[in-house]
Every structure is written in C-alpha cells, then in structure tokens.
Amino acid sequence: MSRAVILTALPVEYLAVRAHLQALQEEVHAQGTVYERGIFRAPGQEWEVGIVEIGAGNVGAALEAERAIAHFKPDVILFVGVAGGIKDVVIGDVVVSTKIYGYESGKAEQRFKPRPEIGLSAYNLEQRARAEARKEDWLERLAVVPEMRPRVLVGPIAAGEKVVASTQSEVFQFLCENYGDAIGERTEFCVRV
Q1: Which residue of 27, 71, 88, 91 has the fewest C-beta atoms within 10 A of its own C-beta?
Q2: CA distance linking residue 1 with residue 75, whole number of Å
Q3: Tens digits of per-residue pLDDT, 64-95?
Q4: How many whole angstroms separate alpha carbon 90 and alpha carbon 148?
Q5: How many Å is the Cα radius of gyration of the chain?
Q6: Which residues constitute the domain of residue 102?
Q7: Cα–Cα dist 41/97, whole Å
Q8: 100 strand-pairing partners
C-alpha cells in the first residue's frame, strides 16, 4: 500500500483532510508530535495516510516535515492548506505547485534584491496533478459543489513567513514584480520526498 503524509497548519485544514480518511488511529511520536493515521480510498487505489497539524511558520514546518518523513517513511509528503492567490486564482480553486519560490531570501541594499530559494515539485506528482486537473470526478468528494466550480491550477507558488492579506500591500506588489509566473502564495514550507 502506498503511504503519504499530509501536513496542515490550521485546524480547519486538518479537519478537511481528516474527513476523507477512514479507520483513524492516533499515534504519538517520541518527541510528542500527535499524528493520526488512516486510510484514503479511491477507485482502484488505497493509501495509508498520516496527518498532522503543525501550526504556522516555516522553521517549525521544516522540522515537523523531517520528523514525519523519518516516522512514516512515506512515498510522498504534502502540505495542504489555505493559500492566497496572486493571479488567475479564485476562492475554492486547488493550486498545485510546480516550484516554490522562497521569496524572502535576498540582499537588503537601498532596494531589496531577491535571491529566491527555489524548490521543485517531484515530476511524477506534477504530472499526476495535471492529469487530475483534466478530470472532474474529484468534485464528487465535495459535500456541496459551489455554483462557481473550483478548478485545479498547476504552476509556481511563492512561499514566505508573511500572511499577505491585501493586494495593496508592499509584499503583494513585490511578489507581482518579481515572481510574475507565481499563481499562489503560501505562508508555509512546502516539501517533497
């Protein structure tokens, strides 16, 4: 059976993932992290999934990701949660990253000069996301399909410690000027195995 770990930052994100799992059992890591392990079933496949709510912050996310990888030895690890849209994204859309710009890395002179760290998503995950984006059967998992049907968008995202709450903010403008191909913004660390 394939194995996945899903990290979330917020309780609402955790509960949304948890709702799709069966046969849940709690597990406590020796360092104190509380996981739940369950089964995700889809036609023709079954996944063992470990889930954990890790809270906000990139450093904590990185530590918890490493711990979860060592504990579960997953085939894939995902960060699932709410993100801000930079372009072409509306509420309810699903964004899958092809690469992640760590936009806060750079050199502060009179003007900030970005030197982004870039993380690439695994090729097979990107291809799976593109294939699933062409289908609509995933919408059947929603309790209610909204009038404006959600889409799956596959592309770059920008990740940092800041919550960008306004399109008028300096950070939002900075992202648009320097990361024009990014479709989403996430304030958490994104990882792959």
Answers
A1: 91
A2: 10
A3: 999 999 999 999 999 998 888 888 888 888 89
A4: 9
A5: 17
A6: 83-193
A7: 24
A8: 119, 157
Same domain as 100, residue 57: no
Pair type for strands 22-28 and 34-42: antiparallel
pLDDT at 139: 87
Q: Alpha-carbon distance 170 to 136, whole Å?
A: 37
E strand spans, the chain: 2-8, 22-28, 34-42, 45-53, 76-79, 84-85, 94-102, 106-108, 112-114, 117-120, 152-159, 184-186
Q: Mark whether 58 and 91 lie in a shared domain.
A: no
92: which strand partners?
A: none
Amino acid at the residue 83: A
In this predicted structure, the answer to whether residue 187 has a pLDDT above a threshold of 60 is no
Q: Are 1 and 74 found together in one domain?
A: yes
Residue 193 confidence (pLDDT): 36
Q: Please indicate, yes or no, whether residues 77 and 87 belong to a single structural domain of this protein.
A: no
For residue 32, name the pLDDT band (cuts at 50, 70, 90).
very high
What pLDDT, on the 0 to 100 scale, is given for residue 42?
A: 86
